[in-house]
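Design job #97: recover the sequence.
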């Protein structure tokens, strides 16, 4: 516990536990849910332990009778625990009673109440760049969302090589501190567990594990693109005359979503203005770009050499650029959640204009972020941001380009330039 690295979601949990009786912390395996939640609990039930599940099966009341806060870890292993907590909250709505953690939604057929009004769900993602480098993060997403156009400052000494290494190291706390073969083995093992065990545990029997792995690899190759289902399917079955049907591969995606392994960025559809002809295609992202790199068999050297490997999925730019966008997107999602904001991706139907990330406040006003694998910013890099400013007027609170550079500043046109490692919540 002494080596615990504070997470941005801790602040959200502090606020919610003060006012709510039960909070569910959800996210992929190894993201740090248990350690974060355990620090807040007096009573702990680890439901990945079969003995604990057997005890609760004989006497479910144990789950809600210990001194609070009570942590129910991996609640989906004992799905009735959700309803036990819901009923306990119905009887007593005192704040700060229960924390539930889950690495998957329960298997089909496990009937549970939605928990609406009783249990609030919080998403936990792999470590953002600000959590990895808290001492240098100086540019607040919250300040950008305020519309005050804050002055920017700060220097980041991270190089392109450092960002490539951060992609490979991952944001999983227990994996990122490993090096070399040990880290590669952990990431490979993570993928193998998904293929060989997690699908089965969620009630989806895989007849052809090779086909699932190929689909996962094709999905990794599609990171930061809006590649269609057909493109990913064809990339996963290149050279095969008998292509798998949507009915075969559709459950792959559904199950991966249930495992919190897919974290796509939805197409942004504005709520406060009259922008038309926007596409709603999602931008594909896995939960952590390190998993994409592991599936594609690339390390930092191959990324820096701009090596192309794996299934052929069309993309603009290099694989390094795509996975850098994944890394920044993962971080921005953490910061946006801390500010009660959501993110999307803007693209017009004809592709004339595209903005990598739109961060939307609860009132519908937004900031726009472009992500560039470059140290400097040119007029071409901001043309879509300038176009969007003309379209949205005061609804666009701020705009920024996220780079691999060293200095945070504002251009003469007011657009912010922010090194990725300097951005925080």
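Job complete. Output follows.
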């Amino acid at each position: 516990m002494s080596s615990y690295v504070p997470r941005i979601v801790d602040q959200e949990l502090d606020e919610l536990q003060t006012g709510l009786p039960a909070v569910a912390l959800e996210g992929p395996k190894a993201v740090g849910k248990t350690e974060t939640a355990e620090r807040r609990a007096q009573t702990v039930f680890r439901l990945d332990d079969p003995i604990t599940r057997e005890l609760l099966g004989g006497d479910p009341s144990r789950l809600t009778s210990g001194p609070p806060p009570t942590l129910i870890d991996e609640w989906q292993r004992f799905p009735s625990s959700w309803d036990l907590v819901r009923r306990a909250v119905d009887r007593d709505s005192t704040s700060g009673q229960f924390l539930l953690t889950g690495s998957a939604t329960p298997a089909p057929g496990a009937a549970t109440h939605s928990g609406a009004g009783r249990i609030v769900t919080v998403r936990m993602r792999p470590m953002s760049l600000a959590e990895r480098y808290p001492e240098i993060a100086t540019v607040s997403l919250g300040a950008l969302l305020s519309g005050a156009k804050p002055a920017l400052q700060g220097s980041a000494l991270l190089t392109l090589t450092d960002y490539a290494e951060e992609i490979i190291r991952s944001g999983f706390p227990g994996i990122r501190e490993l090096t070399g073969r040990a880290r590669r083995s952990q990431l490979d093992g993570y993928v193998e567990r998904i293929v060989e065990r997690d699908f089965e545990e969620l009630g989806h029997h895989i007849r052809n594990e090779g086909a699932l792995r190929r689909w996962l690899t094709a999905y990794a190759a599609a990171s930061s693109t809006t590649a269609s289902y057909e493109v990913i399917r064809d990339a996963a079955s290149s050279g095969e005359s008998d292509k798998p049907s949507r009915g075969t591969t559709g459950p792959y995606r559904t199950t991966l979503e249930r495992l919190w392994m897919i974290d796509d960025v939805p197409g942004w559809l504005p709520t406060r203005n009259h922008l038309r002809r926007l596409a709603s295609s999602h931008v594909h992202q896995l939960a952590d770009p390190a998993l994409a790199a592991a599936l594609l068999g690339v390390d930092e050297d191959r990324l820096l050499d701009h090596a192309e490997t794996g299934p052929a999925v069309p993309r603009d730019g290099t694989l390094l650029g795509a996975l850098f966008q994944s890394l920044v997107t993962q971080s921005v999602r953490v910061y946006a959640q801390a500010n009660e904001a959501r993110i999307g991706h803007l693209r017009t139907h004809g592709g004339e204009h595209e903005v990598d990330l739109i961060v939307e406040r609860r009132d519908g006003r937004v900031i726009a972020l472009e992500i560039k694998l470059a140290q400097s910013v040119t007029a071409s890099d901001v043309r879509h941001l300038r176009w969007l400013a003309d379209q949205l007027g005061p609804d666009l609170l701020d705009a920024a380009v996220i780079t691999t550079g060293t200095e945070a500043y504002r251009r003469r046109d007011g657009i912010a330039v922010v090194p990725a490692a300097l951005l925080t919540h």
